[in-house]
Design a protein that fits this description.
Aminopeptidase; alpha+beta; two-stranded antiparallel sheet; 188 residues; 7 helices
Length: 188
């Protein structure tokens, strides 16, 4: 029996947004058993389907599809889109005011935010993270962005390890609502 093919593309339909939301809900830290979250990793931010559909118009997510189902995604948000979501807006403001990369402040740099990365449990360990981020980098570099920036909860060791393996660099740490996060950068 052959393994089903996983293909990458940009999100473009309402169904893609619904699939992303379903995957997000399955991995939300607040809905997971803490011991499972510690082992499997988790996502913290919640995005509604309508917001994901709006993002598709300007900064579509990179999605991995298998047999018609979203099995992984990387949500992209530029500064303008980030301003429309409380958590993203706060994150960008804090990054702009406190983080620098290779001696240069990030304020004013043309970066794109990874609003969230998520991979379905049964597709983890298949090297999807580097594939997703390469597609993401190629897409957004062509649109004039020089780097991607995101935050990962320090308690999310699985995600921090996956990002490090995908060549992300830690540039600062921030606190949101009492939780410590690493600010990480991927230059394009």
């Amino acid at each position: 029996m052959s393994t089903p093919e996983v293909t990458l593309q940009l999100s473009s339909t309402y169904e893609h947004a619904v699939g992303m939301k379903e995957l997000q809900n399955a991995n939300l830290r607040r809905l997971m058993d803490p011991s499972v979250a510690a082992i499997e990793g988790f996502v913290t931010a919640e995005y509604e389907v309508d917001f994901l559909v709006e993002l598709q118009k300007v900064t579509p997510a990179v999605i991995a599809m298998c047999e018609g189902k979203v099995v992984a995604y990387v949500i992209a948000a530029d500064r303008e889109a980030s301003a429309k979501h409380g958590l993203l807006s706060d994150m960008v403001e804090q990054i702009d005011s406190r983080a620098s990369f290779r001696g240069k402040p990030l304020r004013g740099e043309p970066f794109i935010v990874v609003a969230q990365l998520c991979i379905a449990k049964e597709f983890r360990g298949q090297r999807l993270v580097p594939r997703l981020y390469q597609y993401y980098a190629d897409t957004y570099k062509a649109r004039g962005f020089s780097m991607s920036v995101t935050t990962v909860a320090k308690a999310n060791e699985r995600s921090l390890h996956a990002h490090k393996k995908a060549n992300w660099e830690t540039v600062a740490d921030l606190e949101f609502n009492g939780v410590m996060f690493d600010v990480i950068v991927l230059p394009f």
